[in-house]
Each structure stands twice: as structure tokens, then as C-alpha cells.
Specification:
The complex is a heterodimer of chains A (354) and B (331).
Chain A lengths: L5 H19 L20 H13 L2 H27 L1 H4 L5 H7 L8 H15 L6 H5 L3 H5 L5 H35 L5 H31 L3 H30 L8 H15 L3 H13 L11 H4 L9 H32 L5
Chain B lengths: L14 E12 L2 E12 L3 E5 L6 H8 L7 E6 L8 H7 E4 L11 H11 L4 H14 L15 H13 L5 E5 L7 H16 L3 E6 L2 H4 L5 E6 L2 E6 L1 H9 L3 E7 L3 H9 L4 E6 L6 E6 L4 H10 L4 E6 L3 H10 L3 H7 L1
Parallel strand pairs in B: 3-7, 3-8, 5-6, 6-7
Antiparallel strand pairs in B: 1-2, 1-4, 8-9, 10-12, 10-13, 11-12
Helix pairs in contact in B: 3-4, 8-11
Classes of the chains: A mainly alpha (354), B alpha/beta (331).
Chain lengths: 354, 331
Amino acid sequence: MSESPERPRRVRRKRQLAGAAADAGTSPAVVLATAPPTVLRAGRWRIVAGKEFADHVFSVRFLVLVLILGLAAAGAVYFAAGAIRDAAPSVAGAPSLFLKLFTVSPEQLPSFVVLVGFLGPLLGIAFGFDAINGERAERTLPRLLAQPIHRDDVVNGKFAAGLTVIGLILCAITLLVAAIGILQLGLLPSAEDVLRLVIWLVFAVAYVGFWLAFALLCSVVLRRAATSALAAIALWLVLTLFGALLVGLLAGFIAPAPADATVSQQVANLSLQQELGRLSPNVLFEEATAAILDPSVRTVGFVLPAQVDRAVSSILPVDQSMLVVWPQLVAIIALTALAFAAAYVAFMRQEVRA
Amino acid sequence: MAGADDPPAVDGVPVAIRAKGLTKRYGDFVAVDRLDLSVAQGEVFGLLGPNGAGKTTTILMLLGLSEPSSGSARVLSLDPARHPLAVKRHVGYLPDEVGFYVSMTGRENLRYTCRLNDIDEVEAEPRMEELLERVGLADAADSRVDTYSRGMRQRLGLADVLIKQPQIVILDEPTTAIDPAGVADVLALVRQLADDGVAVLLSSHLLHQVQQVCDRVGIFVDGKLVAVGPMNELARRVAGEGMTVEVAVATDPSAAGSVLERVDGVSSVRRDHRDERLLIVEVERDVRAELVSALVAAEAPPLHVRRRGDELDEIYRRYFGMSEEARERVA
């Protein structure tokens, strides 16, 4: 470097001429620079997912949600255990008594599973509603996309991270409930009980996953995080509060069942209501929960007296319960996949800039 | 490369960015119109134009973040639309008004960029340290980004761009958010990068700031590159040979005015409306020396003679403010 300071300037001049020559199209002298071979590790969405996961876990919303869900669940199971203990003499030896901890709703409190059905969507929405528009608002999206990742790595990583956090919270709270139950009742779950709980958890994660995917879609399509949260919450409230009402109205319109309706008219109306209702992930989750956590449930939906005439009440093994709710599981996963696919496509087609 | 007949100077300096007929249409709106552009390694190229001229769209196409409607781009010999990861691994991009994750510290933000670029930790940590020092953020590195000023974010942005040791650096309006001292720092850094052999593409609407570091500039208006070349060459092309000269005299200005009018090459002389003693002389070519000697001969020596305005102002006015056909005439 001890040579004259003139040197860099000369080099610069030369380089500038190179660019100029290329512009002028005097091609024989133009050499294109090449990049060194680029080897990047596969599965680049995992880097995004790792960062998002850490963000979620250390966020205030994580703390608040765990606290709300944890308290509600602990309360529910405490009273459920009390009710079971009071009825102990009459229910001794009942099958899967342990699982009743999750489904019995004493006093005014909803049961644990109803609680998850109701508050689960909130969990999904909380971890998805500002996934993309948040990055836009903070102006981090162009910088992130300029790193060597594909565009879908962003949306995949965010969905994976959200799903992991949701799974973590649901598992932790279910374990908490089980632990309180064991302490309160002195009752240990059988292997089958555990298996049923694990299957139920899969349902629960898929169900909350739908709301995560839907919130993600809102965050892609809607520019502002507040709007996106409102849109997702609106759908959640409509489905939980007015879902049954809407389905009843619609079914009454398509297949009316007046006061003097024939049996077949009534059946037509009811089955339509049932089919329409199953478009909602909430209904699917309720049905699945009923059959998975209660081995005595042999069918979901309505049954005619003729169908249960002289039927011997008995309990189902796990695999038979699974058969009952297999369609529900497939449908929930399909709805989740649909919502995610919509978010994915919308994001891929969007311009990086506003 | 040396041989019997030496290759021209351009030989051997590779071209890092090359665009040919690059076009981006949104429906009927043409954001970038048949852009031809080359940036050599070690060159600072200034893409100048008013806001909304298509600068950012061009940059996004070069990074593979937006697909061109037609035409082609080569970045380090790669097509950004087909090999976006390789391109993005070697190109550092500082977006306009760069943002960071505000709940993380500056250092954590850089660390995330390292992970995204597959820079392993052993290498990344000392590199981060050095860059934070270089951009003057060593003390603030462990504070959350929401405590940073805009200028600090901009400097963190520069560290974020350099951490991947890019071969090409693209800076979109890098000087808008920072104070004058910061601007000087940024420009010095840009110059240093270029001297190290990095190709720098600088987009800006602030002509005065970037002219100090750009080897060549391209004037970009309404999606078209209306002029390319070194700054002084552009100025000459715009202004032609004519200029405006300001002459101050101590004696009777009207007498001096009639003396000046007789000088060959002077097209008009008028009084400055604010200062009596100033004469504004429009000349067809640089005849400042003749003006002085004419005045001296007439015993009305000038107090000063100087060229009015700035070449840059001229460029700005001509290109950014002029009508369509006037622009075509110049081009």
C-alpha cells in the first residue's frame, strides 16, 4: 500500500470505462463478473421458523395467553374433579373415568374441552394476525426477502413456528390439567386414556392451526395489523355465536321443516343442518372431541330411535372411536390446508413493495 | 492478459451488473422502460431520479424480487429471476427506509442476517464486532432497535449489508434519513467499498450528495434512463457551451453593460433586480476572460466575474423539470 495514492483512482477510472463500454454495447471487451459457487443449506424456512419461534415464546402475548388459558383450564379441572369425587360411589368402575376430567362441566364453568374449543381460535389468531403485515409496517420485509431465502420460506417458517408454539401451549396445559386431576382424584390414566388424549391433542392442534392459517391469510391480504386481527376475530365470533343460528336458517330455507312436517322432511332438514354445520371447524372439533374423549359415544350427529332400538350400550376401543371421527380429522386438516394455501398464494403473488 | 497488442483498458475489469432492455409493466403503466445499464466491479454508479421514477422497481428486478416483464438482467453472470438465492447471497441490499426487528437488539438483528446467509457463528461474531465498530454502533449494539434513531438504523443497515461480504452493494436512498455528518460517513464508506473492488449501485434523488462519490451516473425519469455518463460529461451535454455569468462592477453599471454587450459571444446583458451593481451576462461560450479584458480596457474593472448556478442545478432543472420533448432533444 506504500505506492502512490494515485493508483486506486486509476483503477477506478478503468472500471468506470468498463461499465460505460458495456453500456455502449462494444461487447468484445466486456467481461461479466461471476459469483463464487454458492452452497446454501437446504430447508431455509427453518431459519425463519427458529427466529419466529423465539420471538413468540418471549413475547408478552405468549405470557398473557398461557396465563389466561392456564387459569381457565385449572379452574375447570378443579371443579370437574370435585364433581367426579362427589359422584364417586355411583361412577366407580366407569370406563375412562380419567377422561371425564376433561369433559365434565360442573357448576357454571365450561369443561376443559369446551374451553379449548372456544379459546383455541384466539390462540391461533394471536400468533398469526400480524405475521406479514407486521413485517411490512416495520419495513423489515424487503430486507428479509433480500437475504438468500425463497419467498415462501417466510410464510412457511412463520406458519411452522406458530404451529409449534400452539402445540407447545396445548400440550403444556393438557399436562397441567392431567396433573391436577391425578392429584385431586388419585386416579391414574390408563394407556388407552393417554392414547385418546394424544389423539385429541392432534385434533386440537389442527383446529387451532386452522385459525392460525386464517389469521396468516388476513395478515397477507390486509395492510394493517389491527384490521387483520378484527377480521379474524369477526369470523371466530360469527362461527361460535351465530354459527348454529345461521345453519338453522339456511337449512330451513333450503329444506323447510314446518310444524306439521313429515318425518322425512324433518330428517332432510336435520341432515342438511348437520352437513352445513360441518363446514365450520368449531363443529368438527366438537364432534371429534365428543367421540375421542368418550368411548361410549358411537356416532356423532343425530340418530333416530329406530337406530338405537335394542342396541346394547357398550364402549368402543380407540381404533373404533377413531373410525367414527376420521372424516372430522380429515376435514379439519383440509380446512387448515386450504386457509394456508390461500395465504401462501396471496403472499407469493404480492409485490414486495406496497 | 498482456500481449503484443495490449487490450483496451476496459478489458479485464468485469461487469458486475448488466441489464438489457429491462422492462416492468403494471397493466398499462410502464414502471421501467427498456433499461440498459452496466456497472463494473469497483465502480460506483449513481441511479438518479425523482421519487417514483422506477429506481426501486429496477433494484427489485436486479435482486430477483420482482420479475421483469421483458428484457434481461445479469448479476454476477446470473439471471436473478432464475437463481435468486445465489444472487442474493452475493448482493447486499439496503432498502429505502430500512427496518429492523424492534424488539431485538442491533446485534441480534445482525446475527439473524448471518444465519440467513449461512455464515457460521465462529466467523460471524468477530465480523459483526468489526462492522459495528466501523459504522459507529459499537456502544449501542446491545440496545433494542426501538431505541435507535433513524440515522442509527441506517448505519445498522449498512452493517447488515456488509456482513455478508457482498460483491455488489445496492443502496436505495442511503442518505435521506441521516444528518450531514452521517452522510459524509456513508459516502466515504461507499468510496472505500468501491476501491476494494465492490460494485456499488446507488439510488438517490439527492444529486448533490451522491455526485461526490459516483464514477458515473444515470438520470432516470419516468422509467427511462435519459442520460448516462460521468457527472461532468452530463453537465456539459445538458448545458452545452452556454452559461450565465455574473459580473460586479464598481462604476456605472449601464456603461459597463454596454461595454459587455459588444464582446463577441455575449447574447444578452441585464441588471440584477436585487443588486444594482450586478450584471447578468448570458454567453454562448466561455468568454469570461474576454469580458474581463473588455472591462479593464474600458476602465471599468470588474470586482468579480463568476459563473452563476451550478452544473448540478442545471442538470436537475433540465432533466427532472423539463417537458417530454425537451428531454428527447437532449438525449
